[in-house]
Structure formats: C-alpha cells, structure tokens
Specification:
Length: 121
C-alpha cells in the first residue's frame, strides 16, 4: 500500500510504502500525483519512506515503477529513499540510471534528515 503523507505540498511528494506495493498503487496514486506535480512545477522533490512493514512489490508494480522512471526521469530534482533494508543502497544507485536528479538513501530513523535534504534543492 502506498500513502501520500501530509508533508506533500508544492513540488514535494512524500510517500509511505507498507505491505506489498501493487500496480494499482502506481496507476491510481503515484502516477497521477507525479503527473500533476510535474505539470504544475516542472520538476519534483520526492521522499519515499519504506516503513518496517514494507514487504516488497508485485511484478506488475516493478514494471510500473520502471515505466514511471522512464517517463519522468528528467523530472526529479532529488529523490530520497528512507528505510533500513540492506538492498536500498543498491536500489538508489540503480535509480540514478533512470533519473537526472540526485538520489540518496537514508536509514529508517532519518526521515526528517531526508525531508530536509530534498527541501534543499
């Protein structure tokens, strides 16, 4: 499940992922939100918090994530991924292939630091 957090405002998108992300999380929540923010602001700053209950992604969600990266790769100023999974360092490095902006991984207890970091752009 993907939740849009109240810190989302202006060109900032803040999301919380928990459980298993589905294709619908992308098509119904993230893609329309990103499309609207890019239309209004030309580029966005995004923070994704993978909470302790995050279990992964369906295959269809992985495909939607790839399509989103290809479509909006130039639209990110900064992308912060917050979570404690060991594979997140690798995932953030991989995201740099798809996005032109900066990307950084923060530990699960560094939500506020990540929020400040994206706001610096």
């Amino acid at each position: 499940m993907l939740y849009v957090l109240p810190e989302t405002a202006g060109d900032i998108i803040v999301l919380q992922a928990t459980g298993i992300l589905t294709e619908a999380d992308y098509t119904d929540t993230l893609s329309p939100l990103l499309d609207a923010k890019v239309a209004a602001h030309n580029a966005v700053r995004c923070l994704i918090y993978l909470d302790p209950g995050f279990e992964g992604m369906e295959a269809a969600a992985i495909w939607e994530d790839t399509k989103l990266g290809l479509k909006h790769g130039r639209d990110f100023l900064r992308l912060a991924v917050v979570g404690d999974a060991a594979w997140l360092d690798w995932a953030v490095k991989l995201s740099e292939v798809f996005i032109e902006g900066e990307a950084q991984h923060f530990a699960g207890n560094q939500f506020l630091q990540a929020l400040h970091w994206i706001d610096e752009a």
